[in-house]
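Board notes (copied after class):
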Amino acid sequence: MMRALWSAASGMVAQQLNVDTIANNLANVNTAGYKRQRVDFQDLLYQTVHSPGTPVADGVQLPTGIQVGLGARAAATTKIFTQGTFQETGNPLDLVIEGDGFFQVLTPNGDLAYTRAGAFKLDSNNNIVTPDGYQLEPALAIPPNAESVSVGADGTVAVTLAGQTDPQTVGQISIARFANSAGLQNIGHSLYAVTAASGSAEVGAPGTDGRGFIAQGVLELSNVQVVEEMVNMITAQRAYEANSQAIKVADDMLRTANNARG
Protein backbone atom coordinates (compact mmCIF):
# COMPACT_ATOMS: atom_id res chain seq x y z
CA MET A 1 0.00 0.00 0.00
CA MET A 2 2.90 2.36 0.72
CA ARG A 3 4.05 1.95 -2.87
CA ALA A 4 0.93 3.74 -4.10
CA LEU A 5 1.51 6.67 -1.75
CA TRP A 6 5.12 7.21 -2.82
CA SER A 7 4.45 6.56 -6.52
CA ALA A 8 1.63 9.11 -6.58
CA ALA A 9 3.76 11.58 -4.61
CA SER A 10 6.55 11.28 -7.19
CA GLY A 11 3.99 12.01 -9.90
CA MET A 12 2.87 15.17 -8.09
CA VAL A 13 6.47 16.39 -7.77
CA ALA A 14 7.07 15.74 -11.47
CA GLN A 15 3.92 17.61 -12.50
CA GLN A 16 4.85 20.52 -10.25
CA LEU A 17 8.10 20.91 -12.21
CA ASN A 18 6.07 20.63 -15.41
CA VAL A 19 3.84 23.53 -14.35
CA ASP A 20 6.89 25.56 -13.31
CA THR A 21 8.37 25.07 -16.78
CA ILE A 22 5.12 25.96 -18.54
CA ALA A 23 4.78 29.09 -16.40
CA ASN A 24 8.29 30.19 -17.41
CA ASN A 25 7.41 29.65 -21.07
CA LEU A 26 4.32 31.82 -20.70
CA ALA A 27 6.26 34.49 -18.80
CA ASN A 28 8.66 34.76 -21.75
CA VAL A 29 6.05 34.77 -24.51
CA ASN A 30 7.22 38.28 -25.53
CA THR A 31 10.94 37.75 -24.91
CA ALA A 32 12.90 38.13 -28.16
CA GLY A 33 14.85 35.01 -29.06
CA TYR A 34 13.41 32.91 -26.22
CA LYS A 35 13.13 29.17 -26.87
CA ARG A 36 10.43 27.22 -25.08
CA GLN A 37 11.32 24.35 -22.78
CA ARG A 38 9.63 20.98 -22.38
CA VAL A 39 9.86 18.55 -19.49
CA ASP A 40 10.74 14.97 -20.44
CA PHE A 41 9.53 12.33 -17.98
CA GLN A 42 10.62 8.77 -17.34
CA ASP A 43 9.40 5.99 -15.10
CA LEU A 44 11.32 4.98 -11.98
CA LEU A 45 12.60 1.58 -10.91
CA TYR A 46 10.31 -1.41 -10.87
CA GLN A 47 9.87 -3.91 -8.06
CA THR A 48 9.91 -7.35 -9.65
CA VAL A 49 7.72 -9.92 -7.88
CA HIS A 50 8.01 -12.55 -10.62
CA SER A 51 10.24 -12.12 -13.65
CA PRO A 52 8.81 -12.93 -17.08
CA GLY A 53 9.83 -16.44 -18.09
CA THR A 54 10.14 -17.74 -14.54
CA PRO A 55 9.66 -21.54 -14.51
CA VAL A 56 6.56 -22.55 -12.54
CA ALA A 57 6.37 -26.24 -13.54
CA ASP A 58 8.13 -28.69 -15.78
CA GLY A 59 8.25 -26.98 -19.17
CA VAL A 60 5.92 -24.17 -18.03
CA GLN A 61 7.03 -20.55 -17.71
CA LEU A 62 5.30 -17.34 -16.66
CA PRO A 63 4.38 -15.49 -19.88
CA THR A 64 4.51 -12.01 -18.38
CA GLY A 65 5.56 -11.95 -14.72
CA ILE A 66 4.67 -9.31 -12.13
CA GLN A 67 6.38 -5.93 -11.88
CA VAL A 68 5.17 -2.96 -9.83
CA GLY A 69 6.27 0.54 -10.87
CA LEU A 70 7.50 3.01 -8.27
CA GLY A 71 6.49 6.28 -9.88
CA ALA A 72 7.84 8.86 -12.31
CA ARG A 73 10.40 11.61 -12.39
CA ALA A 74 11.49 14.47 -14.63
CA ALA A 75 14.49 13.32 -16.67
CA ALA A 76 15.29 16.56 -18.49
CA THR A 77 14.04 19.99 -19.49
CA THR A 78 14.64 20.16 -23.23
CA LYS A 79 15.00 23.44 -25.11
CA ILE A 80 13.04 23.47 -28.37
CA PHE A 81 15.03 25.46 -30.93
CA THR A 82 12.34 25.89 -33.54
CA GLN A 83 12.32 29.24 -35.32
CA GLY A 84 10.26 31.94 -33.65
CA THR A 85 8.06 34.34 -35.56
CA PHE A 86 9.66 37.42 -37.12
CA GLN A 87 8.67 40.99 -36.37
CA GLU A 88 9.79 43.76 -38.70
CA THR A 89 10.99 46.76 -36.73
CA GLY A 90 12.90 48.91 -39.22
CA ASN A 91 15.65 49.40 -36.63
CA PRO A 92 18.98 48.85 -38.44
CA LEU A 93 20.50 47.25 -35.33
CA ASP A 94 17.71 44.69 -34.93
CA LEU A 95 19.07 41.49 -36.44
CA VAL A 96 17.66 38.01 -36.86
CA ILE A 97 19.22 34.68 -37.80
CA GLU A 98 17.17 32.89 -40.42
CA GLY A 99 18.06 29.30 -39.62
CA ASP A 100 20.55 27.69 -37.27
CA GLY A 101 23.10 29.63 -35.24
CA PHE A 102 23.74 32.09 -32.44
CA PHE A 103 25.22 35.55 -32.08
CA GLN A 104 28.38 35.64 -29.95
CA VAL A 105 28.72 38.19 -27.14
CA LEU A 106 31.46 38.88 -24.63
CA THR A 107 30.37 38.87 -20.99
CA PRO A 108 31.98 41.12 -18.33
CA ASN A 109 34.03 38.19 -16.95
CA GLY A 110 35.61 37.64 -20.36
CA ASP A 111 33.66 34.50 -21.30
CA LEU A 112 31.78 34.08 -24.54
CA ALA A 113 28.02 33.64 -24.42
CA TYR A 114 25.52 32.96 -27.17
CA THR A 115 22.11 34.39 -27.95
CA ARG A 116 19.31 34.35 -30.49
CA ALA A 117 18.06 37.76 -29.34
CA GLY A 118 19.25 40.30 -31.89
CA ALA A 119 18.02 43.55 -30.33
CA PHE A 120 21.42 45.27 -30.43
CA LYS A 121 22.27 48.83 -29.44
CA LEU A 122 25.22 51.23 -29.58
CA ASP A 123 27.15 52.05 -26.40
CA SER A 124 28.97 55.30 -25.61
CA ASN A 125 31.94 54.16 -27.71
CA ASN A 126 29.70 53.28 -30.67
CA ASN A 127 30.28 49.56 -30.16
CA ILE A 128 27.44 47.19 -31.03
CA VAL A 129 26.21 45.69 -27.73
CA THR A 130 23.28 43.80 -26.23
CA PRO A 131 20.69 45.66 -24.10
CA ASP A 132 22.85 44.70 -21.08
CA GLY A 133 25.94 46.30 -22.64
CA TYR A 134 27.70 43.06 -23.62
CA GLN A 135 29.78 43.56 -26.77
CA LEU A 136 29.12 41.62 -29.92
CA GLU A 137 32.03 39.29 -30.69
CA PRO A 138 34.03 39.95 -32.80
CA ALA A 139 33.74 43.57 -31.72
CA LEU A 140 32.17 45.99 -34.18
CA ALA A 141 32.17 49.77 -33.90
CA ILE A 142 30.06 52.11 -36.01
CA PRO A 143 31.78 55.42 -36.92
CA PRO A 144 30.12 58.39 -35.21
CA ASN A 145 29.57 60.16 -38.52
CA ALA A 146 27.81 57.19 -40.12
CA GLU A 147 24.52 58.19 -41.72
CA SER A 148 23.31 54.64 -42.33
CA VAL A 149 24.19 51.09 -41.37
CA SER A 150 23.54 48.02 -43.50
CA VAL A 151 24.04 44.38 -42.59
CA GLY A 152 24.19 41.85 -45.38
CA ALA A 153 22.81 38.33 -45.30
CA ASP A 154 26.41 37.09 -45.03
CA GLY A 155 27.02 39.26 -41.95
CA THR A 156 28.98 42.02 -43.69
CA VAL A 157 28.47 45.35 -41.90
CA ALA A 158 28.80 48.47 -44.03
CA VAL A 159 28.19 52.14 -43.29
CA THR A 160 27.65 55.26 -45.35
CA LEU A 161 29.58 58.19 -43.94
CA ALA A 162 28.50 61.81 -44.04
CA GLY A 163 29.41 63.44 -47.35
CA GLN A 164 30.08 60.11 -49.09
CA THR A 165 27.95 57.98 -51.37
CA ASP A 166 29.85 54.70 -51.42
CA PRO A 167 29.39 52.46 -48.37
CA GLN A 168 32.43 51.28 -46.44
CA THR A 169 32.75 47.85 -44.81
CA VAL A 170 33.51 48.11 -41.10
CA GLY A 171 33.32 44.47 -40.01
CA GLN A 172 31.82 41.02 -40.26
CA ILE A 173 29.32 39.36 -37.93
CA SER A 174 30.11 35.72 -37.22
CA ILE A 175 27.60 33.01 -36.33
CA ALA A 176 28.21 30.10 -33.94
CA ARG A 177 26.48 26.75 -34.18
CA PHE A 178 26.62 23.63 -32.02
CA ALA A 179 26.37 19.89 -32.54
CA ASN A 180 23.75 19.78 -29.75
CA SER A 181 22.10 23.14 -29.18
CA ALA A 182 19.76 21.60 -26.59
CA GLY A 183 22.85 20.96 -24.43
CA LEU A 184 23.54 24.68 -23.97
CA GLN A 185 23.04 26.07 -20.47
CA ASN A 186 20.67 28.97 -19.84
CA ILE A 187 22.47 31.72 -17.91
CA GLY A 188 19.76 34.36 -18.06
CA HIS A 189 19.64 37.63 -20.00
CA SER A 190 18.65 35.58 -23.09
CA LEU A 191 22.15 34.08 -23.11
CA TYR A 192 23.47 30.53 -23.30
CA ALA A 193 26.80 29.08 -22.20
CA VAL A 194 28.74 26.19 -23.70
CA THR A 195 28.68 22.84 -21.89
CA ALA A 196 30.27 19.47 -22.49
CA ALA A 197 26.90 18.28 -23.81
CA SER A 198 26.55 21.06 -26.38
CA GLY A 199 30.00 20.63 -27.86
CA SER A 200 32.29 23.51 -28.73
CA ALA A 201 31.15 26.42 -30.85
CA GLU A 202 31.68 26.13 -34.59
CA VAL A 203 32.11 29.74 -35.67
CA GLY A 204 31.88 30.99 -39.23
CA ALA A 205 30.20 33.37 -41.63
CA PRO A 206 26.41 33.34 -41.89
CA GLY A 207 25.13 31.04 -44.61
CA THR A 208 28.10 28.66 -44.46
CA ASP A 209 28.15 25.04 -43.22
CA GLY A 210 24.51 25.02 -42.17
CA ARG A 211 24.53 28.40 -40.43
CA GLY A 212 21.56 30.68 -40.98
CA PHE A 213 21.58 33.98 -42.83
CA ILE A 214 21.17 37.38 -41.18
CA ALA A 215 18.24 39.71 -41.84
CA GLN A 216 18.35 43.37 -40.80
CA GLY A 217 15.55 45.39 -39.26
CA VAL A 218 13.80 42.26 -37.97
CA LEU A 219 13.53 40.59 -34.57
CA GLU A 220 12.92 36.92 -33.79
CA LEU A 221 10.20 36.63 -31.18
CA SER A 222 9.67 33.78 -28.74
CA ASN A 223 8.61 30.42 -30.19
CA VAL A 224 6.11 29.95 -27.36
CA GLN A 225 2.59 29.14 -28.54
CA VAL A 226 0.22 30.39 -25.84
CA VAL A 227 -2.63 28.03 -26.77
CA GLU A 228 -0.31 25.01 -26.70
CA GLU A 229 1.11 26.03 -23.32
CA MET A 230 -2.39 26.51 -21.88
CA VAL A 231 -3.38 23.01 -23.04
CA ASN A 232 -0.17 21.64 -21.51
CA MET A 233 -0.97 23.44 -18.26
CA ILE A 234 -4.46 21.94 -18.10
CA THR A 235 -3.03 18.48 -18.77
CA ALA A 236 -0.42 18.94 -16.04
CA GLN A 237 -3.04 20.18 -13.60
CA ARG A 238 -5.31 17.21 -14.25
CA ALA A 239 -2.38 14.80 -13.86
CA TYR A 240 -1.51 16.48 -10.55
CA GLU A 241 -5.12 16.11 -9.39
CA ALA A 242 -5.21 12.45 -10.45
CA ASN A 243 -2.07 11.70 -8.45
CA SER A 244 -3.46 13.49 -5.41
CA GLN A 245 -6.62 11.38 -5.77
CA ALA A 246 -4.46 8.22 -5.87
CA ILE A 247 -2.89 9.30 -2.56
CA LYS A 248 -6.36 9.80 -1.09
CA VAL A 249 -7.51 6.36 -2.26
CA ALA A 250 -4.39 4.69 -0.82
CA ASP A 251 -4.92 6.55 2.46
CA ASP A 252 -8.58 5.43 2.58
CA MET A 253 -7.52 1.82 2.01
CA LEU A 254 -4.95 2.07 4.82
CA ARG A 255 -7.61 3.55 7.10
CA THR A 256 -9.96 0.69 6.28
CA ALA A 257 -7.25 -1.88 7.04
CA ASN A 258 -6.39 -0.15 10.33
CA ASN A 259 -10.04 -0.12 11.39
CA ALA A 260 -10.63 -3.77 10.57
CA ARG A 261 -12.00 -5.86 13.47
CA GLY A 262 -11.43 -9.55 13.98
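Comment from the instructor: DSSP finds two helices and 22 strands in the chain. The chain has two domains: 2-81+224-258, 86-220.
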